[in-house]
Write a structure and sequence with these properties.
CATH architecture of chain A: 4-Layer Sandwich
Structural class of chain A: alpha/beta
Pfam families (chains A, B): CN_hydrolase
CATH topology of chain A: Nitrilase/N-carbamoyl-D-aminoacid amidohydrolase
InterPro entries (chains A, B): Aliph_Amidase/BUP, C-N_Hydrolase, C-N_Hydrolase_sf
Oligomer: homodimer
Strand order of the largest sheet of chain A: 5-4-3-2-1-14
Strand content of chain A: 25-35%
Keywords (chains A, B): Hydrolase
Protein name (chains A, B): N-carbamoyl-D-amino acid hydrolase
CATH superfamily of chain A: Carbon-nitrogen hydrolase
Largest interface: A-B, 64 and 64 residues
GO molecular function (chains A, B): hydrolase activity, acting on carbon-nitrogen (but not peptide) bonds, in linear amides
Distance between the termini of chain A: 53 Å
Number of strands of chain A: 14
């Protein structure tokens, strides 16, 4: 048994007017609750420090950049790092990253128990669009404000296991999990902000959208025999609803915990990393079963090309 | 609307002593029922003409070869082809193929409405093992009797759509669907023979095994926005139980029909290929969203390699 007690720290809405300091105070309260529940690792959502600003169309780059962090930790976030080190809890959370040389990424970091940043991931699969789209019920401008991640899908040894990160829309892409699976990943942590309404198909409904969330996460866990911890920012931000449904899935693809609210809520589950071994050594023993000579299109072709 | 009425023709057990002719008579009865229900395409299981012989350990190659077909159609199967042409129903079924130059494959073919074979697929992901394994509750010797498929994952234009094939264990591998998705596949048809007991983990239970079946098929359908028709050979063959659970899944990953027996059973569902378009043009518009520069390990590395 190699158990990591994981806290999925779902966060309720963050309004546009909320300060970083107010958000960090909420994150610290979740961290304290996670500590009381025995957590070793806490997983917060994507863009945990701010509202989901890509829903707002902005043309002034200074207005855009105000949503980004230029250093991490910075003064507003330092109290969270201090408390995490005090509690000896490792963390994963997302934020908008502006690099010294002017690049914008949708980023997540992972710390060790001492509050040191040991891993950084930049979101690869950016959903949405670049220009204002009059045909959508709301905007989703991630492709406007962020560049695609440039770090690939690394994994890190932390807390005695092999842990990888992903962000939001990445979870719908089997490539995300597989690239980490090929590095022996035992746990994938990811945060998301997902609108309750499909801007291009309002009839879809939140039930189906929660189903797609579960399906993607469960398949990624099963097909790579790893734990997946998927954590929402949820609730209504300035009139725009995000669904909750944070969940922890075991290496059999089974949901072992799922949030029931759309607010701040902590789920803690003991995740035995040795439970990943059976799948990795039998049906998903990649070395014995994968046939890469037939997978060429996956890396040689980006878009679909129908046959003649 | 581009509707294909698809018949998932689940088959109950085939005993070792059953002749090809007896099996073909059952397949014709299912075809007749599919015709009455308006089918355009009928999908039968993997290794539809025989018992699931890879459960039997054999050393005499002549005994092995007796389970294989050296031509298709052949005299035993010709009546099925004749009836399908008469009904103007396209077919997909699996069989063990022995080529003129002595290669053994776990194969499936697809015909058009005129009974012409328009596509052949050879199973890529062979499960199981090569030598007798005393630690298993039963044998699963596909790696002994078959070579991995050498045809990749092609798709074909048939019945006004783009259709691909897979077989059994292929359905658990996201690469299977993705390679076809990159060719614009609108419907994947696949047959399976899956033991109700995990030979290496009897405690798993059939409920969990059916869950993994559904999860794999539903994720493949959703993540490539295509229909998937997955058809079992089910029931007890000479004391060995195979699960049923044949299912038809829409491009949203939702189950629209599922078998309720472990015997011969036909499900017919009208599948609108235009229902694949929304997903392919939005969230799974591969050309806009995939980032192949980060997928390299999928085709460059077969087995998992943990980090230092």
């Amino acid at each position: 048994m190699r158990v990591i007690n994981v806290a999925a720290a779902q966060m309720g809405p963050i309004q546009r007017a909320d300060s970083r300091e107010a958000v960090v105070a909420r994150m610290i309260a979740l961290l304290d609750e996670a500590k009381r529940k025995g957590a070793d690792l806490i997983v917060y959502p994507e863009l945990a420090l701010t509202t989901f600003f890509p829903r707002w169309y902005m043309e002034d780059q200074r207005e855009v950049d105000a949503w980004f962090e230029t250093t991490m930790p910075n003064a507003a976030v330092q109290p969270l790092f201090d408390r995490a080190r005090q509690h000896s809890i490792a963390m994963n959370f997302g934020y908008a990253e502006l690099t010294p040389d002017g690049h914008h990424f949708n980023t997540a970091i992972m710390t060790d128990r001492d509050g040191n940043i040991v891993g950084k991931y930049r979101k690869v699969h950016l959903p949405g669009h670049v220009e204002y789209d009059t045909e959508r019920s709301h905007q989703h401008l991630e492709k406007r404000y962020f560049e695609p991640g440039d770090l690939g899908f690394p994994v890190w040894r932390n807390l005695g296991g092999i842990i990888g990160m992903a962000i939001c829309n990445d979870r719908r892409w089997p490539e995300t999990y597989r690239v980490m699976g090929l590095q022996g990943v035992e746990m994938v942590v990811l945060g998301y902000n997902t609108p309750s309404v499909n801007a291009q198909k309002p009839a879809e409904g939140v039930t189906q959208r929660l189903f797609h969330n579960r399906l993607s996460v469960q398949a990624g866990a099963y097909q790579n025999s790893c734990w997946v911890v998927a954590v929402a920012k949820a609730g209504v931000e300035d009139g725009h609803a995000l669904f909750g449904g944070s969940l922890i899935v075991n290496p059999d693809g089974e949901i072992v915990a799922e949030a029931v609210t759309e607010g701040d809520e902590v789920l803690v589950v003991p995740c035995d990393l040795d439970a990943t071994r059976f799948g990795k050594e039998t049906i998903f023993d990649f070395a014995r079963h994968r046939r890469i000579e037939h997978y060429g299109l996956i890396t040689s072709r980006t878009g679909a090309v129908p046959p003649e």
